[in-house]
Design a protein that fits this description.
- The protein has 405 residues and is α/β, with parallel strands linked by helices.
- The chain contains 19 helices and 11 strands.
- Helix 1 crosses helix 8.
- It is elongated and about 85 Å long.
- The two termini are 38 Å apart.
Length: 405
């Protein structure tokens, strides 16, 4: 049995930037032949996004792009030309899935919208991933992870209570809710097609998977009329629960001791008299009511410890704790290494580069990044020859006509 459960599935991938590229990466790492349709005139923004390998800027040197596009093939077409659009249609005709995350109407301008392509590919699974979906008064609005976090209420909940909304430090919707929901929808549609022979259109409004993250805040308002606000690292009912400084520059530890047993274990490990003797901290209610004083005291205590050994000692005592890792720590994390999370591949321009494996393990068909991210247009000739049956002189003629960008 193949280790790639999606082997034999072909995806015409018109996505770019974050959520769309990550969606199709999941399919590619599971063995689908994902053909990334690109253009040298309108470059995928991620190709020009930091960090660059060796600090040298280049369209084939972005680590961000590489990780979101592992296992794919790249074809450059000029969709403004009729010949370029014809080639796109021919690729779609041999594909099982078409994916895009453009503003509604963009694919239609090229004659590649769902209604147009289903005329010659009846069983196609076609996914569109715009910010607000295909319908509604704001469907044509542009959006990125930042604006999605804002309009869904995610940013309202992020940050410290006394400060302005802080966001999440990254375009969170691009990395978790939207790719996961979209890939699941594609697999469900492919299963439906296998059972019925019928394809379908998938309309993902990226704000909606993001809203799914905010269930407690929505319920708190609908049930109690309470608009939840920012709480920083605190927990809404338990203390201590936060991030505390440790020995070294910008080193921290996260600690959560929500139960009496965990609190007792924490006081024993830290061996600080005030923790056990202060009347304010004797009950869970008292600890929560005086959480600012408790956090201040804990900060003075943890500052004298090293994060890693303290976290290990607390864990062994039954207290939820972990050092706050930076990128270097995560790459050398023994747990991730033991699970084979990091995959190293040889990239034609960047050399040996690291990729995230799929964030789950399947016993029979695990899937993994099976080739590095493609150079811009690296597989144009290869795809046109093997998939469309074009000869070298025909490809050169198309290139001279401007159909291949």
């Amino acid at each position: 049995m193949s280790k790639f459960p999606l082997a034999g599935i072909t995806v015409a991938d018109f996505t770019w930037i974050g959520a769309g590229s990550y969606t199709t990466k999941i399919l590619a790492d599971f063995g689908a032949d994902v053909i990334k349709i690109e253009s040298t005139e309108r470059i995928d923004t991620l190709r020009d996004a930091k960090p660059f390998q060796g600090g040298i800027r280049g369209l084939n040197r972005s680590g961000y792009f590489a990780d979101r596009n592992s296992s794919k093939r790249s074809v450059t077409l000029n969709l403004k030309s009729e010949e370029g659009r014809k080639l796109a249609r021919e690729i779609i005709a041999q594909s099982d899935v078409v994916a895009n995350n453009f503003t509604p109407g963009t694919m239609e301008k090229f004659g590649l919208g769902y209604e147009a392509v289903r005329e010659f590919k009846k069983d196609l699974v076609y996914i569109s991933m715009s910010m607000h979906g295909q319908t509604g008064p704001e469907s044509k609005y542009l959006g990125y992870g930042l604006t999605m976090g804002a309009v869904t209420g995610l940013h309202h909940l992020c940050g410290r209570p006394e400060l302005d909304p802080a966001g999440t430090g990254t375009n969170f919707p691009d990395h978790v809710p939207n790719p996961a929901h979209s890939a699941f929808a594609i697999l469900a549609a492919l299963r439906h097609r296998r059972r019925t022979g019928v394809g379908q259109f998938i309309d993902v409004a990226q704000i909606e998977p993001t809203i799914a993250l905010l269930g407690p805040a929505v319920l708190n308002y609908t049930a109690n009329g309470v608009v939840a606000g920012r709480v920083g690292n605190q927990h809404i009912t338990a203390a201590p629960h936060g991030v505390y400084p440790t020995r070294g520059e910008d080193r921290w530890i996260a600690i959560s001791a929500a139960t009496e047993a965990a609190w007792s274990a924490l006081t024993k490990v830290l061996e600080h008299p005030a923790l056990g003797q202060d009347a304010r901290f004797r009950t869970s209610v008292g600890r929560w009511e005086h959480r600012e004083a408790l956090d201040a005291l804990l900060s003075t205590i943890t500052a004298g410890h090293d994060a890693e050994p303290l976290a290990m000692q607390l864990q062994h005592s039954g207290v939820a704790a972990a050092p706050v890792h930076d990128a270097a720590d995560v790459l050398r994390d023994p747990q991730l290494q033991a699970r084979g999370h990091w995959v190293y591949l040889e990239h034609p321009e960047m050399g040996r580069t690291v990729y995230n494996a799929l964030p789950f393990r399947m016993s029979r068909t695990p899937g993994y990044p099976n080739r590095p991210a493609p150079l811009l247009g690296e597989h144009t000739d290869e795809v046109l020859k093997s998939m469309l049956g074009l000869k070298p002189n025909e490809i050169e003629a198309l290139r001279s006509q401007g159909a291949l960008q």
